[in-house]
Amino acid sequence: MNREFKGVWIPKDIYLNPNLSLVEKILYTEIQSLDMSEKGCFASNSYFAEFLGVSNTTISQGITKLKDLGYIYQESFDGRKRILKSSLQETGNQSFKDVEPAFQKSKGRVSETANILIQDTNTDNSTIKNGEVSPFTNFVSVYDKFCKDRIGVGCKMNGAEGKALKSIIQYLKLHIKGDSQSALVESWKYILSRWDALDDFYKNQMKLTQINSNLINILNQLKNNKNGKSSDLESKIRTRLHSQQRTRV
């Protein structure tokens, strides 16, 4: 395959995710690279297997895992050709397509190693400390456990679900005070742990797209107890955080 490009870009979510193998990280990177081409990523499992030097089964399992984690989704399949898309096409205000080699000016640090271009665009150390995975990855893990506990199977992520989860994260960032990622993830854990306190209508809508659409109503219900007395959701989250911190000490 004749391809003209200067390198590939590995998102921090992928690069630092301990739940992904090296093969799965490079598999995502190749899908993302092909996705940026004019025709999109329509490569077969056999192509990926040959490219990475692994079996078709390993590729099939890797693609399924990347889908479940919300990193990629299948846009279409006509019975012969499958189109895979990356869910992480944007980082901040900068598109992956705009990333150039190390000599280009950039908001973050850029280094080039073994023909792989790695860029850290995160400059907000108060939100994500060096070495941490992003809130998205942690939110997926919390939601996956929630699904397993309630229905016996893990969550099924796709492009729409991933986009909805990002919207939930952004909303909570705006409305949950605190500058740590742990406070943000703890708020998500609290919401899901209190699911049985919701009306049946909201309780039965467990997809992330549904949770995102109902989020304001869900929070309003959780902020009010059965007696109609208002309780501070943020205060409860902070109390739970402080209790956990004292336990660790």
Note down, in words, how this protein is organized.
- This protein is mainly alpha-helical.
- It has two domains: 8-89, Winged helix-like DNA-binding domain superfamily/Winged helix DNA-binding domain (Arc Repressor Mutant, subunit A, Orthogonal Bundle); 135-248, no CATH class.
- It has ten helices and seven strands.
- The strands form three sheets. It has a three-stranded mixed sheet.
- A hairpin with a 2-residue loop joins strand 4 (90-91) and strand 5.
- Helix 2 crosses helix 4 and helix 6 packs parallel to helix 9 (208-222).
- It starts with 7 loop residues before the first strand and ends with a helix.
Briefly say what this structure is:
It contains 10 helices and 7 strands. It has 249 residues and is mainly alpha-helical. The strands form 3 sheets. A 3-stranded mixed β-sheet has the order 1-7-6. Strands 2-3 form a two-stranded antiparallel sheet. Strands 4-5 form a two-stranded antiparallel sheet.
Radius of gyration: 20 Å
**Spatial sequence of strands, sheet with the most strands:** 1-7-6
- Percent range of helical residues: 40-55%
Question: What is the succession of H and E elements?
Answer: EHHHHEEEEEEHHHHHH
* Estimated share of beta-strand residues: 5-15%
The total of beta strands comes to: 7
Averaged pLDDT: 74
* Domain unit count: 2
- Number of DSSP helices? 10
- Uncertain spans, ≥5 residues at pLDDT below 50? 90-132, 226-231
What structural class do you assign from the helix and strand content? mainly alpha
**Main beta sheet: strand number and arrangement?**
3 strands, mixed
